[in-house]
Design brief:
The chain is mostly helical. It contains twelve helices and no strands. It has a single domain (about 60-230, about 245-269), classed as MetI-like (MetI-like fold), CATH 1.10.3720.10. Helix content is about 75%, strand content about 0%.
Length: about 270
């Protein structure tokens, strides 16, 4: 009982209090917000601030939401397909290359990305400062983690299902997409939710690989309201609130599925 109460208090302090501070600050005028005090606004301007933030720089935030949505949906879809297929092949087909491939997957989890060589590669491919180029970056950076999750879960699926499908005349692709992939729903939900939040909230990769106002993602719009000498704290926190709500809703709705997918392989194994 004491531990539960302590955990609840800690959760409130860590998560709820900062969110309330953002909400209150985003409802103030510029002078009131500049004090950065945890207090109710002297003059409630929530909707006025929201409209001002949306209209800033010719509706840049709206364009950024479109860019971030496209980036997130396409990147996560590619992660699911590629990681599930690689995890299936690594788990089901033993070969001399498995050790090397496993080492490369682990290296992808451990070795940090190199920014300048990556930019050189993108420039050589003609993909630098383009949305397709950033999509490939997001997929490459997250693929190792997704492969590890899928491989652990696929190990819990009996091989007899593969044999039965092959005896019924299924090809390799039919076996994967019609038999195996539907059984991967728990871990797929985990991969989708975790990477959706990660890609949508990504700040550094769009900053490095997708410069330009036309290509801005939601996180980069934070620069609209702060500069070296002045910061509009009410607009800045309103921007933070608007770009925080979508991933927060996704996380709250699928929290249980995330935990189930992360632990399913270990529990069944």
């Amino acid at each position: 009982m004491v531990l539960s109460a302590t955990a609840l208090v800690v959760a409130i302090v860590v998560f709820v209090v900062p969110f309330l501070f953002i909400l209150l600050t985003s409802s103030k005028d510029r002078a009131d917000a500049s004090r950065l005090e945890f207090a109710f606004p002297e003059q409630f301007q929530f909707f006025e601030n929201m409209i001002a933030v949306l209209q800033t720089r010719d509706w840049m935030l709206v364009r950024a939401f479109v860019n971030s949505t496209v980036l997130t949906v396409v990147s996560v879809a590619l992660m699911v397909v590629f990681a599930a297929m690689v995890g299936f092949v690594l788990q089901r087909r033993r070969s001399r290359l498995n050790g090397l491939i496993n080492a490369m997957v682990i290296a992808g989890l451990i070795i940090p990305p190199a920014i300048v060589p990556t930019i050189w590669v993108l420039q050589g491919l003609g993909l630098y400062a383009t949305l397709p180029g950033l999509i490939l970056i997001e997929v490459a950076y997250s693929l190792s983690f997704c492969i590890v999750l899928y491989r652990a879960f696929i190990s819990t699926i009996p091989k007899e299902l593969d044999e039965a499908a092959i005896l019924d005349g299924a090809t390799g692709l039919q076996l994967f997409f019609r038999v195996i992939l539907p059984l991967l729903k728990p871990v797929t939900v985990t991969v989708i939710v975790v990477n959706t939040v990660a890609v949508f909230n990504d700040f550094t990769n769009p900053l490095y690989y997708l410069p330009g106002d036309a290509n801005a993602t939601v996180q980069l719009t934070l620069y609209n309201f702060q500069s070296e000498f002045s910061t509009s704290w009410n607009y800045l926190f309103m921007d933070i609130l608007l770009i925080t709500i979508p991933p927060l809703i996704v996380f709250l709705l699928f929290n249980r599925q995330i935990v189930a997918g992360m632990t399913a392989g270990a529990v069944k194994g």
